[in-house]
Design brief:
two-stranded antiparallel sheet; Neutral zinc metallopeptidase; mainly alpha; single chain; globular; membrane; transmembrane; four-stranded mixed β-sheet
């Protein structure tokens, strides 16, 4: 693609609040682009859980020249294996007192509610380079890494218990991802996790029952009703941790410039199918990154090989075909088989280039 500016038109904010601009939040299982195409996707109601629907609409292009303004392109995302052997996952209980945990001297900072601005490529050509050849891909994830956020029954936990658990998971996530992000010359941010009920209004708009990352404030939000539904959607005690790790995957994409670059390229194409393909590449990449995190903390948390089926079932449950009941669904998150494949890639590898979904064949992100 030519080294043109962002279409010669900034996606600037014309004034008014974020809510007034019509950026509804999305997240777990569904998200990008559905409302913009006038094609809402059904949720999990047939399976007994709440509907995890909704997603951000396309920002409107405004007149004038210049670069893309991040503040005008609000990006949200949500969560969302083929067989593998995941090194680092045990076959039984063990004493971890002698484990040499990686990055253990790193002092994880508190949640940053006033984070530095996200990096924004200046041209479409630069955006293509970011998504395919980011220095982030050249790094590896340390393992094993200590995590003190032990699993809880999210289906019965109180809001305060959920907040403590997920904010503890954020500490673990930052400890795992700080080395590769820093080595890539980028800045990692620890998001806060806000627990809410049936509806939440943020700088990214209003969300129903969801878990989502909001790029406008770089924070994570998790509905307590989603927490109650997780045991229904995927009978896996690690499902909620997979979800929150997926959301942090979007935070990593945001901090590396991958998130905004992919969304801008999809929108610039002017083609719905191309836009959906970019969205699916983002979503399954977040699945892959979540798998890498699970692999890194498996020893500390006691995740066993016997837990793998449940973890894979979590990825499978949020496939576009599983959510809609349509095996031929062409959606914005990926079919169950794609989500399982990329989750497996993360669970079985430490090299981040394994998660470069933007150079993968279309068939692997279907």
């Amino acid at each position: 693609m030519s080294n043109q500016q962002w279409g010669g038109q900034p996606y600037g904010r014309p004034g008014g609040s974020w809510q007034q601009q019509g950026y509804p939040s999305g997240g777990f299982g569904q998200g990008y682009g559905q409302p913009a195409y006038g094609r809402p996707v059904p949720g999990y109601a047939p399976r007994g859980g709440p509907s995890f629907g909704g997603g951000p609409q396309r920002p409107q292009r405004r007149g004038g020249a210049g670069t893309l303004l991040l503040i005008g392109l609000v990006l949200l995302a949500g969560i969302a294996l083929i067989g593998f052997v995941a090194t680092g996952l045990g076959s039984g209980g063990s004493d971890n007192s002698d484990v040499a945990y990686q990055n253990d001297d790193y002092r994880v900072p508190p949640p940053d509610t006033s984070p530095p601005p996200l990096p924004v490529p200046e041209t479409y050509e630069e955006a293509e380079q970011v998504i395919t050849d980011s220095p982030f891909y050249g790094q590896s994830v340390p393992a094993p890494v200590r995590c003190d956020a032990k699993p809880i029954n999210v289906g019965t936990a109180s809001d305060s218990q959920l907040a403590d658990h997920f904010n503890g998971q954020m500490e673990c996530l930052v400890r795992v991802w700080e080395p590769p992000v820093t080595e890539a010359g980028l800045v990692i941010v620890r998001p806060s996790v806000t627990i809410y009920g049936a509806k939440m209004t943020t700088r990214c708009g209003t969300s129903g029952v969801n878990a989502f990352y909001c790029a406008a404030d770089q924070q994570v939000y998790y509905s307590n009703q989603l927490a109650r539904a997780v045991p229904i959607v995927a009978e896996d005690k690690w499902a909620a941790d997979v979800v929150i790790a997926h959301e942090f995957g979007h935070a990593l994409q945001a901090r590396t410039g991958i998130l905004i670059s992919a969304k801008a390229l999809g929108q610039q194409s002017g083609d719905e199918q191309t836009d959906l393909l970019y969205s699916r590449r983002l979503e399954v990449q977040a699945d892959c990154l979540s798998g890498m995190y699970i692999r890194a903390v498996a020893t500390s948390l006691g995740i066993q090989q016997s837990d793998l089926q449940g973890i894979e079932d979590t990825y499978k449950a949020v496939g576009d075909d599983e959510v809609t009941g349509d095996p031929n669904m062409v959606g914005n998150h990926g079919l169950a088989r794609s989500r399982v494949y990329w989750g497996d890639q993360g669970l079985g590898n430490a090299t981040i280039s394994t998660c470069n979904t933007f150079t993968a064949p279309k068939s692997q992100v279907r």
